[in-house]
């Protein structure tokens, strides 16, 4: 039989009760460290942050705003509408003579806003729906997930377009409609994770301590799902930006004088046969760079939060 | 197996009904009717028109009439905007075109995506792999509505090789660009999925056993690795199909191919409700049918699913 040295044991107890010495690193700290090592993800974050800042402060440095028409350059096209520093149109003007620089920034704001708000709606709805379905289980789970299956095989793009046609086009409605059709994947993923979590010991312990119902879900189940949710959310943002661009491209999304990446690309593409490539090039490069940033950040988060991968 | 197919087919009926009801209710929530215009019609005329199209009846009867005429007569009703043309005629005109380039794009995306993915996985960490990964990352930000104008700039405006639009009875010059524009981003996704799952399969034990037996690499890939590697790809084909169907709207507008998408957007802009609903339901039936086929195929191919 091994005899423990009393002094060593006391040391161990002391050490363990001293928070400075046994400071563990949580999942989130670990993840942050891993994320910081991923060069692509960090530079994508920086570029995206710069883009967001530019989209808000950029118009202070431009002499034109996004809806004023420069009558001298209206319909000028390739005879004077080019990007130029001297007349203050850094990205040139569009076919109506409006400053493309501020329009692109304005479109960036709208596209990012729709992406973020739509994702927020989708994440919130999907998180609760999936957590409840997975946690309650049984017949409730069956019915709830069957309903998701039904919704998922509906070509939602057409329904969004019908909603936009019926209720009039506005940014608020657009992100609601997009968000309401994007929560199903989230619900499925969350449900799967919840099924795995709900039989863990700490849930049992919480139950034994008298926690029940909604509080068990919000305090104990959802916090432990967040890793998966964060990964999926970061991938949902670019896909919703794509959806929004698609709808605005068709002319059924954001309405004039507001604009968005999709709408700007549509206008630029419609003008390209008149030799005005900048109308397509500037919005398109913002779009491509923005999407790339989100994709790299999403990949970085996945590597950081999912160590087994 | 047969039981599974029947069950799966039956379970797609509520989906379809929900789709019809949702779009019907949405249409009826809309302010103003299809005949509201700037010029006020005399009340008697309006009542006559409404009676002709059955719009004077209570809405549940209208819904029932609509559903039953679709089911029993395959009749989507008259178009409210194009006079003397029924929704059926419009569908008959546009649908073959959409289907032609849609199916071609689907085949191109699947065949090229799968082969690119497999060759990338087999030649892991060589230039071919890097090229495939590069293409699939790049194509993620090139959805159809970006590809279409870029293709037109390159092939029509600069190189002057291909016509910038039109259909012309489906001659090959007119099909190429729509198919490339529609299939690129899906091809990239399929390639990425295939590469990932193929790499996983190639590292598994049964492939090591097959290598130890001395089988040639070709046989290992075709006989042993391909089937399990393609299962995740198969489940992506459903969403890809839905995406392509929605994407056809862009193609039709951009290349003026005259498919269903063009009518859909025109109907959306002019509030032609019966045409909007007809097209939505038709595309809904297609997607539901397709996801059913994919599910059945999946169940048939995946040995882990017991029927």
TrEMBL record, chain A:
Keywords: Cell inner membrane, Cell membrane, Membrane, Peptide transport, Protein transport, Transmembrane, Transmembrane helix, Transport. It comes from the Bacteria. GO terms for cellular component: plasma membrane. It is found in: Cell inner membrane; Cell membrane. It is a multi-pass membrane protein. PANTHER family: OLIGOPEPTIDE TRANSPORT SYSTEM PERMEASE PROTEIN APPC, OLIGOPEPTIDE TRANSPORT SYSTEM PERMEASE PROTEIN OPPC. This is Oligopeptide transport system permease protein OppC. It comes from OCS116 cluster bacterium.
């Amino acid at each position: 039989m091994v005899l423990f040295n009393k002094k060593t044991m006391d040391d161990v107890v002391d050490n363990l009760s001293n928070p400075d010495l046994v400071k563990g690193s949580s999942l989130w700290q670990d993840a942050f460290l891993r994320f910081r090592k991923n060069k692509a993800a960090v530079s994508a974050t920086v570029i995206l942050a710069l883009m967001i800042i530019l989209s808000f402060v950029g118009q202070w440095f431009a002499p034109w705003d996004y809806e004023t028409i420069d009558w001298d350059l209206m319909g000028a096209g390739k005879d004077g509408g080019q990007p130029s520093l001297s007349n203050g149109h850094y990205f040139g003007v569009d076919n109506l003579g409006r400053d493309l620089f501020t329009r692109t920034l304005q479109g960036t704001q709208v596209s990012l806003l729709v992406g973020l708000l739509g994702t927020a709606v989708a994440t919130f709805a999907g998180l609760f729906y999936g957590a409840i379905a997975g946690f309650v289980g049984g017949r409730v789970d069956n019915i709830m997930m069957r309903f998701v299956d039904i919704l998922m095989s509906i070509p939602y793009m057409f329904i969004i377009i019908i909603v936009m046609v019926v209720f009039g086009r506005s940014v608020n409605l657009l992100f609601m409609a997009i968000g309401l059709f994007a929560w199903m994947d989230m619900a499925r993923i969350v449900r799967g994770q919840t099924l795995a979590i709900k039989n863990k010991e700490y849930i049992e312990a919480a139950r034994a301590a008298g926690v029940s119902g909604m509080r068990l879900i919000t305090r104990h189940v959802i916090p432990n799902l967040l890793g998966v949710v964060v990964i999926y959310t970061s991938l949902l943002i670019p896909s919703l930006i794509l959806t929004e661009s698609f709808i605005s491209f068709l002319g059924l999304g954001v309405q004039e004088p507001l604009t968005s990446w999709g709408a700007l690309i549509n206008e630029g593409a419609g003008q390209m046969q008149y030799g005005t490539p900048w109308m397509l090039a500037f919005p398109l490069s913002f779009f491509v760079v923005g999407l790339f940033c989100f994709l790299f950040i999403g990949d970085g988060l996945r590597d950081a939060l999912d160590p087994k991968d | 197996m047969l039981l599974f197919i029947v069950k799966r087919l039956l379970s797609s009926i509520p989906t379809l009904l929900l789709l019809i009801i949702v779009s019907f209710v949405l249409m009826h929530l809309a302010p103003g009717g299809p005949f509201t215009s700037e010029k006020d019609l005399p009340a008697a005329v309006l009542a006559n028109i409404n009676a002709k199209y059955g719009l004077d009846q209570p809405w549940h009867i209208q819904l029932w009439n609509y559903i039953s005429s679709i089911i029993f007569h395959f009749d989507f009703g008259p178009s409210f905007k194009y006079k003397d043309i029924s929704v059926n005629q419009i569908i008959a005109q546009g649908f073959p075109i959409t289907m032609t380039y849609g199916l071609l794009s689907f085949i191109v995306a699947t065949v090229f995506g799968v082969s690119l993915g497999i060759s990338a996985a087999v030649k892991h960490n060589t230039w071919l792999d890097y090229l495939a990964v590069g293409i699939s990352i790049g194509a993620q930000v090139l959805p159809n509505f970006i590809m279409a104008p870029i293709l037109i700039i390159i092939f029509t405006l600069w190189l002057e090789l291909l016509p910038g639009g039109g259909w012309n009875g489906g001659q090959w010059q007119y099909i190429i660009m729509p198919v490339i524009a529609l299939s690129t981003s899906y091809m990239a996704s399929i390639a990425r999925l295939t590469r990932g799952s193929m790499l996983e399969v190639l590292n598994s034990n049964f492939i090591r056993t097959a290598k130890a037996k001395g089988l040639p690499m070709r046989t290992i890939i075709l006989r042993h690795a391909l089937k399990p590697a393609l299962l995740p790809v198969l489940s992506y084909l459903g969403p890809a199909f839905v995406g392509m169907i929605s994407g056809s709207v862009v193609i039709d507008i951009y290349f003026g191919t005259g498919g269903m998408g063009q009518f859909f957007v025109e109907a959306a802009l002019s509030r032609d409700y019966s045409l909007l609903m007809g097209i939505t339901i038709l595309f809904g039936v297609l997607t539901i049918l397709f996801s059913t086929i994919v599910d059945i195929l999946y169940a048939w191919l995946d040995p882990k699913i017991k029927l």
